[in-house]
Amino acid sequence: MRKKSFKRAFRDSLPIMAGYLALGIGYGVLLQSKGYSFWWAILMSCTMFAGSGQYAGVDFMASGASLLTTAFMTLIINCRHFFYGVSLLDKYRGTGIFKPYLIFGLTDETYSITATVKLEKDISPKHYYFFLTALNHSYWITGCVLGAVLGMFLPFSGEGVDYAMTALFIVIMVEQWLDTKEHLPAILGAVTTLVCLVVFGAQYFIVPALFLIAAEMVIFRKKLDKTTEEAHEHD
Amino acid sequence: MTDLHPLWQVLVMAAVIAFTRFLPFLAFPEGRRRPRVITYLGSVLPYAIIGMLVVYCFKGVSVFTYPYGLPELIAAAFVVGMHVWLRNTLVSVFGGVAVYMILVQLVF
Questions:
Q1: Less crowded by CB within 10 Å, the N or C end of chain A?
Q2: Which of A174, A186, A221 shows the shortest C-beta gap to B48?
Q3: Could you tell me if B65 and A135 are in contact, meaning their C-beta atoms sit under 8 angstroms apart?
Q4: Domain that holds residue B56
Q5: pLDDT by residue (tens digit) across A78-96?
């Protein structure tokens, strides 16, 4: 069972491997170019494990931002994770000793898989989640260190490999689209984010987008809510 | 004396990121009743957030300057087409990456 869980997790992690190695190498090169050795790459990718959070972090470090500014900006960039947790409360229930690590390692990419995956009966969910999170973490650390150590000397151009992340999210969206008749959440999520990107700009759009999306979901609750219908039947 | 400020910054960032991830699980612990609206949000948000993440990936694309986001759009259309056709995640993702790399390195 554990072996099967690992196999499935490994297969599902392959697109993320490509993306994380590419983004991680880019990150390592960036760190090195700002004068931080690969020890910083190891430290940051082990303790933070956040793509955009870490990229922004290099700027804060290089510019010597105050701890308060650093904390506040990091909070803004990463507050989307709060919404991820809300939709994994049930899936991550009962994962026992793995739970703290699963939560610690909840990146966009890991979330996109665990929140949407449908597992066969002979796969143990908690082991699957753990393997997926740990594999992704290992790709990320490997990429960051590789980039910091030898990024400058890469013999070929990897420009564009990071498109794996975009492609993965598109695939998941198509998969969900074909899987359900209710397309309103997906449409609202994409359109709201697009509008916020145009209105607020690339630096600040994510927080207003998140809160608007949550508000829209609440507004359309009557139409979309399948959980309370079932709950009412039990009342 | 070595400058310890970056180290403190890393620790602060790691703590804040962990906070954003742990908060919902601490606010709504296992075995405790939680508001229905939270359960409801948990059921619809994955669909909305994937929509958000797709747009999020395109945030750096400039539509008004050459190549007008064409490589991103062409590769995205390829990924959608491949996936509707074969529904094989690996083929769609790596095919899309290949198309995108060819476009940005050789065509545009």
A1: C
A2: A186
A3: no
A4: 5-107
A5: 888 888 999 899 999 989 9
